[in-house]
Amino acid sequence: MATPTPPPDEIEADTPQPVPNVQTSAHYPPGYYQLQGFSDRDNFVTDSVTMVDPAYGFWGGWFTPPVDPSTIIVPITPSAKGRTPVVTLDQIKLRLRIDPSVTVEDPDLVFLEMAARTYTERYIRQTLDPDAQDASGNVIGIGENIQQAMLLLIAQWYRNRELMVSGRLAEPPYGYAALLSSERDYPGVY
């Protein structure tokens, strides 16, 4: 025996309906300041509301208002020429298995070291200074993880001198990002 179908007005009453998109407000914490938000009409199951702090965006700064792209100024990276190298020419030749007596590519290898240095400085958002000293006057130096990451990058650039590698765009090796993840400055996370 078939189950009777309920009338259409009973079906609509049992089906969750979207919440209308209306502005709401709340005090959080109580008595502190007023937050404003809009109910989420797509989330009809939980009746949730997205709250916006007018001073700080979504919950203390996670969301910031849009910025006019024409006002953004990105400074050009200065040259690393004349600075103490982070990775020496001998280290680069050893990594690339180039005989130390072969000097025909030395200018290119020095250039690759300078480019890898500035690329790494931009990536970790810190300046690399092998001559930096601590309070006692001892040279701090640059960590081996940074040197290893730079050698990986230099080796890739040396072996793949074009933009495309095997039909896809060349990108820094995975080990590069893994080695530098602990050194990278993540603004706004602390």
Shape: extended
Q: Stretches where pLDDT falls below 50 for ≥5 residues?
A: 23-45, 57-61
End-to-end separation in angstroms reads 65 Å
- Write down the secondary-structure element order: HEEEHHHEEH
**DSSP, total strands:** 5
Tell me the name of the CATH class of the largest domain: Mainly Alpha
- What is the CATH third-level topology name of the largest domain? Hypothetical protein yqbg
The CATH architecture of the largest domain: Orthogonal Bundle
Largest sheet: 3 strands, antiparallel
Please state the CA-atom Rg, rounded to the nearest Å: 29 Å
> What percentage of amino acids are in beta strands?
5-15%
**Structurally, how many domains make up the residues?**
2
Which class best fits the helix and strand makeup? Answer: alpha+beta
What is the average of the pLDDT values?
A: 75
Number of helices: 5
The spatial strand order of the largest sheet comes to 1-2-3
Fraction in helix: 25-40%
What key phrases describe this protein's structure?
2 domains; 30% helix; two-stranded antiparallel sheet; single chain; alpha+beta; 190 residues; Hypothetical protein yqbg
Characterise the protein shown here.
The chain has 190 residues and is an alpha+beta fold. The protein folds into 2 domains: 49 residues, no CATH class; 92 residues, Hypothetical protein yqbg (Orthogonal Bundle), CATH 1.10.3230. The chain has 5 helices and 5 strands; from the N terminus they run αβββαααββα. It has a 3-stranded antiparallel sheet with strand order 1-2-3, with no helix packed on it. It has a two-stranded antiparallel ribbon with strand order 4-5. It is extended and about 90 Å long. About 15% of the residues have low confidence.
